[in-house]
Design goal:
Helix content: 40-55%
Order of helices and strands: EHEHEHEHEHEHEHEEHEHHH
Low-confidence stretches: 229-233
Shape: elongated
Strand content: 15-25%
Strand order of the largest sheet: 3-2-4-1-5
Distance between the termini: 67 Å
Largest sheet: 5 strands, parallel
Number of domains: 3
CATH superfamily of the largest domain: Tetrapyrrole methylase, N-terminal domain
Mean pLDDT: 92
CATH topology of the largest domain: Cobalt-precorrin-4 Transmethylase, domain 1
CATH architecture of the largest domain: 3-Layer(aba) Sandwich
């Protein structure tokens, strides 16, 4: 056999998501190609595994393909790790996989977390057909062009967004795609995991007035979303108050709560804001 290449998906935040297969694969491999050895060493230390690591990132991936050729000739098993989640998904590794295939190596994906999948299934938007776009281009003009191409798409759209670009990205997406239903998923699998659901304008308002931390995934409804523009049926005040108290206990702020209630219960944001303020005062 001309060697093996293991594509190992690692936790996006919660180390409890490490599978026994991932642990065994890391123990059994000859060495590891890691996007950032400083990040991967934390995972290995957690598992009490000592293993040689070699950096493999976007700036040296082409050069690292020579290691795959050598590994194939020596019948070695190499593990490929990105900093978090599944390798190659908005991360390096494509050239490594191509070289492994060319060398006749067995390419074996080891399943695990992927942030965009977690965000998609938790968003409340249709998951039967979707398109994953990764990060939009850095230049506004190029980003706008790409969004215009996506505008007529009848699939749910998923983006990765850096927190410091969230407000500008939401404004741009809303401008090009219109005020669709959307969801921001942040801090996935971590203690402060959060799903913010609403329209793009509501989420834009929230991001513009609140400091959002942690890597974000933005899920946007398709062009023919059947729920577009519709409101949920009015809920009783007791139901809304119960939901508000729960969100207060989770440490959410008044602005975030009011945005959530406006979308969830079909009420005016100002009305939800006043109700949330009342509840906060009672808790204090």
């Amino acid at each position: 056999m001309p060697g093996k290449l293991l594509l190992i998906a690692t936790p996006v935040g919660n180390l409890g998501d490490i599978s026994t297969r991932v642990e065994k694969s890391l123990k059994d491999c000859d060495y590891i190609l890691a996007e950032d050895t400083r990040v991967s060493i934390k995972l290995l230390n957690h598992l009490k595994i000592k293993k040689r690591m070699v950096s493999c990132h976007e700036f040296n991936e082409t050069a690292r393909t020579s290691l795959i050729t050598q590994a194939s000739q020596a019948d070695q098993t190499i593990a490929l790790l990105s900093d978090a989640g599944t390798p190659l998904i908005s991360d390096p590794g494509y050239e490594i996989v191509q070289e492994a295939i060319a060398c006749g190596m067995q390419v074996i994906p080891i399943p695990g977390p992927s942030a965009f999948v977690l965000a998609l299934v938790g968003s409340g938007l249709p998951c039967n057909r979707f398109v994953f776009e990764g990060f939009l281009p850095d230049k506004p003009g190029a980003a706008k062009t790409r969004l215009a191409e996506l505008a007529p798409d009848n699939r749910t759209i998923v983006f990765y967004v850096s927190p410091h670009k969230l407000a500008k990205t939401l404004t741009l997406v809303r401008t090009v795609l219109g005020d669709r239903r959307a969801c921001i998923a942040r801090e996935l699998t971590k203690m402060h995991e959060q799903f913010l659901r609403g329209t793009l304008s509501q989420l834009d308002d929230f991001a513009s007035n609140n400091r959002v931390m942690g890597e974000c995934v933005l899920v946007v409804a398709s062009s023919d979303d059947s729920h577009q523009g519709k409101r949920h049926s009015k809920a009783s005040e007791d139901t809304v108050v119960k939901a508000i108290k729960k969100m207060i206990s989770e440490g959410r702020g008044v602005k975030e709560i009011s945005t959530h209630c406006a979308e969830q219960f079909g009420m005016k944001r100002s009305q939800a804001y006043q109700l949330a303020l009342r509840c906060v005062k009672k808790v204090d």
